[in-house]
Amino acid sequence: MARVNYWWNLFTKLTIFWIHARTVGAFNEIWWNLGMSGLDALQNPNLYIVGTKTMCIQLKGLSLGQQKLCGIYSDHMPSIGGGAQMGIRECQYQFRFRRWNCTTIKGDSSVFGPVLQIASREAAFTHAISAAGVVHAISRSCREGELGSCGCSRAMRPKDLNRDFIWGGCGDNIEYGYRFAKAFVDVREREKNHPRHSDALSRMLMNLHNNEAGRRAVYNYAKVACKCHGVSGSCSLKTCWQQLPTFREIGERLKERYDGGVEVKFNKRGTKLKRKHKKYNKPSKEDLIYLQQSPDYCQANKDTGSLGTKGRECNKGSDGMDGCNLMCCGRGYNTFKKTLVERCNCKFVWCCHVKCKTCESVQDIHVCK
User: Fold this and answer.
1) pLDDT (tens digit, 9 = 90+) per residue, 74-121?
2) Which CATH number fits domain 309-369: 2.40.50.100, 3.30.2460.20, 3.40.50.410, 3.40.47.10?
3) How would you classify the pairing of strands 300-301 and 306-307?
4) Is it the case that residue 1 has pLDDT exceeding 80?
């Protein structure tokens, strides 16, 4: 009997350890990883030979719900990976002059490392821009005929469109892109039930809100594009269709939302989030929200995931965040001479090539101490 109890206790401990390891791993891993090394795997035709179910299990960062959607919509996965990659690149562009510059950490399945475990503005932006990337990529893939379950947009004709214009060109299917992105991105957050007033619940609600803000940054700003038809460009006829905003426009819009992010806290029942300071406006569904203040990112810190600003280039003549005073956090900077070699004085030579000279220039480069 004692021997049975020993093995039963050992089994129980191992089970608890396994569940804990799975939980920690699931928290650290995220589907954004598809935008990194995962994208190459998605585009490898040999992966599909072993079966869709096996492929979906092998893809790092997918939650159980996302694995199920992957099994049903396997042809969507390359587009999701492309959307994640767009989001990562746009994040790095928008924050290229900030102390936190959206640096990805090689080999880390959470993509951005421990920094996003803090429920800060940065976490809010990354969730929003990645969700927007999925909407954008899926909507465009529908139009291109790359997905089996959708095609061109079936959006209604805008009421203010000129009556003489023809509506019905093959537009970006933003409606489908929005619905699929909502299902795929949000299922990760909705898979678990969290107790009231818990940190896990507040973070889930924050992520869901910011995911929706990212999707709306695409969906609410669709454009109407038109093309002229007629003899010699007379434009006697116009065909119009629904078109996505450029991803740079989406990134800039979400960056503005980041700058105006709203700090939130639990309501009295501990079931919803509300603004922390009443002097600020209530956050709309397009606003970004956050729970914790950001670290200053001046010094490298493994606990917060901050890489610090030592070695970062700065702009000596700027008073903004890219300026040497703010970027270097008052530590000062070193100046180096850098020789740039560029093509210059280019001329078109008939026929048919461009001939250029090689020019050298010396520039001062300022680097934070």
Assistant:
1) 999 999 999 999 999 999 999 999 999 998 887 676 788 888 899 999
2) 3.30.2460.20
3) antiparallel
4) no
